[in-house]
Automatic annotation (TrEMBL):
This is Enoyl-CoA hydratase domain-containing protein 3, mitochondrial. One of its GO terms (biological process) is fatty acid metabolic process. May play a role in fatty acid biosynthesis and insulin sensitivity. CDD domains: crotonase-like. GO terms for molecular function: hydro-lyase activity. It comes from the Bacteria. Pfam families: ECH_1. The keyword Transit peptide applies. Keywords: Fatty acid metabolism, Lipid metabolism, Transit peptide. Belongs to the enoyl-CoA hydratase/isomerase family.
Amino acid sequence: MTEHLVLREDIGTVARLTLNAPASLNALSDAMLAALKARLTELAGDPAVRVVLLAGAGRAFCAGHDLKEMQAGRAAPDKGAAYFADLFARCAEVMQMIPALPQPVIAEVHGIATAAGCQLVASCDMAVAAEGTRFGVNGVNIGLFCSTPMVALTRNVPRKQAFEMLTTGAFIGAEEAQRIGLVNRVAAPADLPESALALARTVAGKLGAAVRIGKRAFYDQIALPLEDAYDLAGAVMVENMLWRDTEEGISAFLDKRAPDWA
């Protein structure tokens, strides 16, 4: 069992997941990936949860892949080729589960978020970072270009900033991460949990079904040509408008009262 590697705490309609391998800076080991996949699968089927927070225990959010495990994989006759292919496929599966999750996912980041750890932040729908947090896709410093983290990173930040990070291995701070769009908010370290939770509670306070349909449409339309994106979004708006709770929400707004959502 790997449940201890990703802890879950429910705070009302917000579920807080904590990567819990502080000795390895919450590296994405085989066991950690399996535990995170299990937790995300669990949450996907939990209608009581409206927002997910993702944090890390100890000194850091996540330091990326477990390099010791990766080096051990080289002992195979194929020098690790099959293991590496499987590892990166499993990691990609977990990263893609986050935008596919019905609930918005907010990264609560402190310490460092490097390589696949930075990929994890970029895969989340939003992120709140503590002052002093460092972000990097620094694999190039050890001769391994961060090609899979690049996929998520380039879908968050402008390409020239992403390319500079990928090719120099340089770290950026929380304020710079916010400026280029990797992070939504920056908080004092002592205020990080409450700041992330406040954002989560704001989102959780909206009509859950509307947020779920909106999140799905957000990611579906972003990959489409402009005309097709409008066609998809228009169909989603029609579906949303026909809901009883949406009719009630609009009526409540016009009547200047709180909505009576079922």
